[in-house]
Specification:
With 370 residues, the protein is mainly α. The chain is 57% helix and 3% strand. Helix 2 runs parallel beside helix 16, helix 6 packs antiparallel against helix 16 and helix 7 packs across helix 8. Bound molecules: acetyl coenzyme *A.
Length: 370
Amino acid sequence: MTATKGLEGIIAAQSSICSIVDGVLCYGGINVDELAEKASFEEVVYLLWNGKLPNRSQLDELNKNLGENAAVPKEVIDSIRSYPQGVHPMAILRTAVSLLGLYDQEAQDMSAEANLRKSIRLMAQTPTIVAAYARIRKGLEPVDPDPKMSLAENFLYMLTGEKPSETAIKAFNTALILHADHELNASTFAARVTVATLTDIYSGIVSAIGTLKGPLHGGANEAVAAMLAEIGSLENVEPYIRHALDNKQKIMGFGHRVYKNGDPRAKWLREMSKALTKQVGKEELYQMSVKIEEMVTSEKGLLPNVDFYSASVYTALGLESDLFTPIFAISRMSGWTAHIMEQYENNRLIRPRAEYTGPVNQHYIPIDQR
Ligand code: ACO
């Protein structure tokens, strides 16, 4: 038995939700480029859950369900008020979503119908939790969700209490689509491993949130924002990146386990970054990002992943950098729940083996002889 470090190249499941073939990313067989250009995030949610795009009445029903389920139990909001200051919003989200499970009377109902209803609630309530916490930590009251708004509009509205611009809604909708699913990425795999024991959907989602939080995965977008802030100006890019490369430091937002010729989502975010930073007078952020890309690509052969330009996109949208990964979680909730439901449909316990590398033929030595 020989271990494959990081399970690289291992096919660990069959799935009809999302494919990555020759660097092309598709949801339900539709190229993500087409979806990013034409779809609403809600259509993508339906596609991931059902394997096909919704017709008008199916989309209306989903929108209605998401709107009606966006409010979070008062007990959860009260609990968020009591969480310690300075805790990372991903830790808050992980805890609050776990708490949602306590107040969901269907939490232990393992029927497919109940799991779909829970998926709707998780999808609808995650933005409400993130926005509520973002306000509570500033001493502001949470803003109630507006059931008539799209998920993208509603989230931005709940953050500020003001109706967002059409540009912001469109950009955020596209970002949600681009982050919605990505086959067996680490957090989705964690969710599938968890629910393959036939535990409940909330347990699977809590595993996924905890996994996304790490800087090698979803946490990279916040790390990119921190790097941009530390660099501070276009002229500082060159010495900063040179020093990092010379010292073999990782440059966050670059490299990918699956894409070696470029992440198809990055070009969208690069264009959005260019347009949005210009609109808000923060072009230097985009220029710095381009310069970093040029250096890292020419010197290391590494290309930007989905997290690199999303940092400047979200900054231009006025979002706080420690909310970037929770925003990723809002979007990926669609993919996580789709994969969890697919796992339940055709389940087998996921239990690989380890290659043992420890000592052999040892004996118990009484404690006073050690
Ligand atoms: N900066 C500098 N060097 C890098 C980077 C990077 N961002 N990424 C990979 N490398 C180097 C590694 O040091 C390694 O070099 P070596 O062979 O000389 O030791 C080589 O490229 C291979 O890298 P691995 O880490 O083995 O590649 P792996 O497939 O395991 O990791 C990962 C992929 C985690 C994304 C990696 O590229 C990385 O850490 N990137 C930075 C973090 C990041 O942006 N994560 C977000 C990924 S997208 C997402 O999860 C949503």
